[in-house]
Amino acid sequence: MARRESAAAGPGSRALVVDLIRSSGPISRVELVKATGLTQPTISNIVRRLIDDGVVRETGDTVATRGKPRTLLVINSRAAYGVGIHLGDSTLTCVVTDTRGGTVGRQLVAAPAGTGPADLTDALADLYRDVTRGLGLPPRSVAGMAVVGPGPVDVVRGDFLAPGRRPAEQGLARELSERLAVPVLVDSDASAATVGEFWGRQVSRERTFGCLYMNAGIGSGVVLDGSLHRGASSNAGKVGHVAVVRDGEPCPCGNRGCLEQYAAPHVLAARARTVPGLADRLRIRPDDPADRAFDVLARAAVYGDEDARALLDEAADLLADGALTLVNLWDLDTLVLAGPGFAVAGSLYVAAIRRRLGERACTREVHAVDVGLSSNPRDSAAIGGAALVLQGSVAPGHGPLVAARAG
Ligand SMILES: [Zn+2]
Q: Structure pTM?
């Protein structure tokens, strides 16, 4: 008892209570006592503070019981707004969500033509101002902004380390935070999507939850006890750099035969151009960017083009091995596929992964693994960025979220 009471003062208990209301609300104080093992006075104190802060509200409904009627609690959707911007290959996607993860605004613009760090900073600042002003959000209602993109990332400095991207002088997060006067964080698209899917799908913290993310690269994230597992430098989960072919194709990461070199969308788009007649038949033009060419190929595979289907099946087979590795490493019970790479033919990948896990997962005799597709694979990283900001703001204590604040 004493141990629990001393823990109650820490941010962990607040995060736990927020997380339970998020995933199972509407919920009463009595149910929170049962679910957390904390005492009734502790729950009352935490809930009172959450209501004072505007994070939680009473629904006005009560549950009749033999004793006193129980008031139900939910997350206050308007407590704060989070802004997430996803750096895609050729686009920037900005999404604004409320505290319950509902999307209140979205804008897609072309990525800046210039490749210098200042070009990106300017484009991100303009997009943030456009979207928040367009929605009429008072500056104080915005909890912060997350910029998410391909890893690796340096979350302490707040910038991307991806090859070909020149880092901003003081770090992207600090430069943006100073310019916009909001907290800014930088994280990988896979980490963001993982938190976004966990938060948005109202997954219970008791689940061992994994997310497989595919855009230009292939990454993953795992949520354990309600917290994203980050690793030593917030770069965990690079399943795309697990070698699937010994001494195979060289990869920019330095390894050879990485999964990404065989199953990533741009690789399939390039292979489609080498199959005689396929690119012409699907009207994939030589100057089409890889992500667009891949979407066309994936659509053709879904509609039964045999050549397109063969390419997708081969990639899905390799990706299923990647998913099997994730499930076996973490003993996952839930796996969600997210990212633009799954936007068109996600169901083909889901089927291949379900089949593989049913046949080969080490735990298949012990428990099933629930495999599903994001309800919005294309925007999942941007939505997740907003979720990262909100989770850090309303339920601090969830993990080493690093957000730079101006000044
Ligand atoms: Zn690699």
A: 0.90
